[in-house]
Write a structure and sequence with these properties.
The complex is a heterodimer. Chain A is mainly alpha-helical. Chain A has 14 helices and six strands. In chain A, the strands form three sheets. Chain A has a two-stranded antiparallel ribbon with strand order 1-2. Chain A has a two-stranded antiparallel sheet with strand order 3-4. A two-stranded antiparallel ribbon of chain A has the order 5-6. The longest helix of chain A has 36 residues. Chain A starts with a helix and ends with a helix. By secondary structure, chain B is an alpha/beta fold. Chain B has two domains: 157 residues, Rossmann fold, CATH 3.40.50; 65 residues, no CATH class. In chain B, strands 6-7-8-3-9-10 form a six-stranded mixed beta sheet, sandwiched between helices. In chain B, α3 runs parallel beside α6. The chains are: A mainly alpha, B alpha/beta.
Chain lengths: 376, 237
Amino acid sequence: MRNVLNHLLRHERRNAWAAFLLAGIVLLVLPFATDALLGRGWVRIMDFALLYMMLALGLNIVVGYAGLLDLGYVAFFAVGAYTYALFGSPQFGLHWPFWAVLPMGALFACIFGVLLGAPTLRLRGDYLAIVTLGFGEIIRIFLNNLNAPVNITNGPQGISQIDPVRFGSFSLGSSHSLAGIVFSPVHLYYYLFLLFTLLVIFVSMRLEKSRIGRAWMAIREDEVAAEAMGINTRNIKLLAFAMGASFGGISGGLFAGFQGFVSPESFSLMESIMILCMVVLGGMGNIGGVILGSVLLVLLPEALRNGAGPVQQALFGKVVVDPEALRMLLFGVALIAVMVLRPAGLWPSAQRRRELVVDDAAIAEQEQETVYDAAK
Amino acid sequence: MSQLLEVRGLKVAYGGIKAVKGIDFDIAAGELVALIGSNGAGKTTTLKALAGLLHPTAGRLHYDGKSLHSVAAHQRVYRGMALVPEGRGIFARLSVEENLQMGAYCRNDKAEIDQDMQRIYQLFPRLAERRMQLAGTLSGGEQQMVAMGRAMMSRPKLLMLDEPSMGLAPMMVEKIFETIRDISAQGVAILLVEQNARLALEVAQRGYVLEGGVVGLSDSAANLLGSDDVRRAYLGA
């Protein structure tokens, strides 16, 4: 019996490795596959999908694990992006290397996370949402207006000519060829983002199972009881804000290096809402769900942009509704549909699933049973 | 007998309202003390102040030979004080097992934590059956078991129970009180806050009666059970 079990386990493990290997190969050749099959523009879209994935996973720590509703999360993305931009562009004539600026962006975002967290420690739910929403706007408005009296952020024009990510003399901003294959910047950034995304996923997974992760979830469930367990709720909540923010900061720095240009426009409230939608739609608190949510919300609008025109052409002989206008409408419908049909998200965590499966009748029955047992 | 907890002149106010107006009481190591009284007498407030969740406006709390002044709520758990809050305060979307693990948050002796977990499952076989189930889907009585088991996981010297009988079926209440006796027999001091005065005084060694934020009566549980005043006011006889 035990032998059979061991054999199965070993088999299982081998299968898992095979699956990992396969997934790795798919991810590696994906940019070239899309180039060949779907067209040139898709690698860039995948780059953005990876950036959003990092953002959504960062927000998932705050919202999904610690249960703190943050509507201003894009502010940390902005802090990371502007840190990278200010220290790696002609704006101040600073051209610090990427490996120094990116962690700095994460650190600054972290500090801003604590700055946001500290005054809101006693707030929850709607009240916290309102304050964080305001915080996100404050950051954006600051970026918009910090061009006078001293020009720091260059105001609404934004900062351009940001240095690309560079490893020594190897710049991701220009094409390189290896063994006859040409890697354009979008390809190179794809691999860089992939690496960072995997890192963020790994850290998220470790955090979820850690003592800190459990403390976050306890706070989410009942803050007073969490404190009565010996959890320093103040520090642990600040840690959630700081950790979440630092993921946002890293994503922001990568975004700045990739785009070569940042402006306050990229950090509007709508972005915060999109990131939150990715988390909620995919499945709050579940890493797989959050990844799924971010991929879908980045890819679907693009697919629609490319697909809605031709489809209408084929059906009606002309384009009736502008695909751009259709995008928001379908997005809204999709959101409502998911919330009605799958309230815990497309791919909920095992716990959320169990919670929503057990119905009241089952609980009542169980209660009866318990009373009966106690009587015996 | 050396006192585990000494409370002197404790006053607690919510905003402007004085809920506890200067009370004194003691608990010896391993003792089971009941704090009874009607709604709004200040029982829960007293407990919250002991757990550090509310800050007293005046008074002295002495625990295990040291003052509790400026000891934060979460640090008190490390000193061996465990609270089972009113309404149980279980982590609804964590499993029974995860709830129990949270109780051991202040410890890091993995092997012994696992042993204690087994002991809790022996104490409450019901929980062992449902260890992977979300605590929020359990019945009220089972949730109370989770809350008590969780508190025990911190290996407390003083267990503070806030209304453990609240909202439970009579059978379940009996079961819970049986367990309180068991825990007490293991040498854990218990401060039991209850509205159900008779039940509380039946398991306790001593009792304090709170009335309007002050201690009205204090005596051995047996004497309080026999006292005409207590019977008229709280036992309905």
